[in-house]
Amino acid sequence: MITLKEGDKAPAFTGTDQDGKKISLADYKGKKLVLYFYSEAGSPTCTIESCNLRDNYSLLKKNGFEVLGISPDKEATQKKFEIKYKLPFRLIADKENKITSDYGVHDMKKLFGREYMGILRTTFIVDEKGVIRKIFTKPKNKAHAEEILAEIKK
């Protein structure tokens, strides 16, 4: 369950990206970050969301945002996802669900009456000081970048 709130300090993390390189929240200090969690590279909804962020990446960058995706996939799976969909941002492979658990997005889900542990698609907007400014618990997969940009204009 997501217990983090807007105004909370974003939990620090270190992980490995699709190229096998270490990456941490500290790497984004002084930058605004779109930190999006998705359940599975290549799944239909997660692909639509990732491609929307890709298609609007230059606009997000123009507004000062970096983008970082996190899922429990392996590095090789993240790399295939990056290549197939030409994703211009880094993807963390959180195979042990450490980061997803710290952010409260590794939780019970229900599909067709069956309950299972999974990733709650969620996006955290983290400011330059590492503070969570906005949480999207049900991101609009086809218009996620647009809803992020609309939020910052408020």
What can you tell me about this protein's structure?
This protein has 154 residues and is an alpha+beta fold. It has one domain: Glutaredoxin, CATH 3.40.30.10. Helix content is 28%, strand content 30%. The chain has 5 helices and 9 strands, in the order E-E-E-H-H-E-H-E-H-E-E-E-E-H. The chain has helices at residues 44-55, 57-62, 75-85, 98-102, 144-152, and strands at residues 14-17, 22-24, 32-37, 65-71, 90-93, 106-111, 114-119, 122-126, 132-136. The strands form 2 sheets. A 7-stranded mixed beta sheet has the order 2-1-5-4-3-8-9. It has a two-stranded antiparallel ribbon with strand order 6-7. Strand 1 (14-17) and strand 2 form a beta hairpin. The longest helix is centred in the N-terminal third of the chain and has 12 residues, at 44-55. The protein starts with 13 loop residues before the first strand and ends with a helix. The mean pLDDT is 94.
